[in-house]
């Protein structure tokens, strides 16, 4: 399973980087394969592991913000591993072929 999610603190002003860093720290400490970009953090693992990380990432932001927004998208595909890498490699291969 791959989960892409974004946790945004509300009611703390425009500069939210330090709050988002709290969420990303939880992801990094989880040990699950992950990637963070400008809009989302993606992680890969089984349902329980991924949802636990998302829950803890939200809690980390919620501890410092009066309100939290969560956007989550999941690719639930049993038997697939290393999807974070293989999906990107497939697209890159097609791009290289012209």
Automatic annotation (TrEMBL):
Q: Mind telling me which InterPro entries this protein's record contains?
A: MTH1187/YkoF-like (IPR029756), Thiamine_BP (IPR002767), UPF0045_domain (IPR051614)
Q: Which residues cross the membrane?
A: none
The Thiamine-binding protein domain extends over 3-92
Short name of one Pfam family: Thiamine_BP
Lineage: superkingdom:
Bacteria
Task: Extract one GO cellular component term from the record.
Answer: cytosol
Q: Which family does the UniProt entry place this protein in?
A: Belongs to the UPF0045 family.
This protein's name: UPF0045 protein
Q: Which organism is it from?
A: Streptomyces cacaoi
């Amino acid at each position: 399973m791959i989960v892409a999610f974004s946790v945004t603190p509300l009611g703390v002003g425009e500069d939210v980087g330090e709050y988002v860093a709290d969420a990303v720290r939880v992801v990094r400490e989880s040990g699950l394969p992950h990637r963070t970009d400008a809009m989302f953090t993606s992680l890969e693992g089984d349902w329980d592991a991924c949802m636990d990380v998302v829950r803890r990432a939200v809690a980390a932001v919620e501890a410092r913000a009066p309100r939290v927004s969560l956007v989550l998208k999941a690719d639930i595909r049993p038997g697939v591993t290393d999807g974070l890498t293989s999906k990107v490699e497939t697209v890159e291969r097609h791009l290289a072929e012209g």
